[in-house]
Amino acid sequence: MAYIISEPCIDVKDGACTLACPVDCIYEGGRMFYIHPDECINCGLCLSICPVDAIHYDEEMPAAMKPFEAANREFFGPEVTGWGDPGGWDEAHTTRLDHPLVAAYPLREKQQA
Asked: Which of 15, 42, 51, 54 could form a disulfide with 9 if both were Cys (CB 3.0 to 4.6 A apart)?
């Protein structure tokens, strides 16, 4: 399937993964980024650069993070954005919306540098 962004990204959204992705399959939601599972080419560049270890290969997903597999897929469906298969991120495909799983997480305080 694809790589999946999980809980450590919530309220962090570093963005290094989006710069590393050669096919622009990482989209910005309100509180985290989401990988489009059908656009991801499984190159692993996002995984190697994520500073908070939020990205996992679907077959190596920790059990506690498994719900994020559905959250990444459903983010693009009618349940959240209705984008379907946009064919790669662009400014028109950035939103403040999040999957209900993500929206339900308590807000994290921003870390001071």
From this structure: 54
Question: Which DSSP category does 55 fall into?
Answer: E
d(CA 110, CA 99): 21
Instruction: Report pTM.
Output: 0.93
Q: Are 46 and 55 in contact (CB under 8 A)?
A: yes
Residue 69 host element (H or E): helix 67-74
As given in the structure block, the two tokens for residue 43 are 């190159």
Q: How far is CA 39 from the centre of its chain?
A: 12
Q: Per-residue pLDDT for 41 more than 90?
A: yes
- For residues 64 and 9, the answer to whether their CB atoms sit within 8 Å is no
Q: pLDDT tens for residues 20-29?
A: 999 999 999 9
Non-local CB neighbours of 89 within 8 Å, separated by 6+ positions:
18, 24, 25, 26, 27, 28
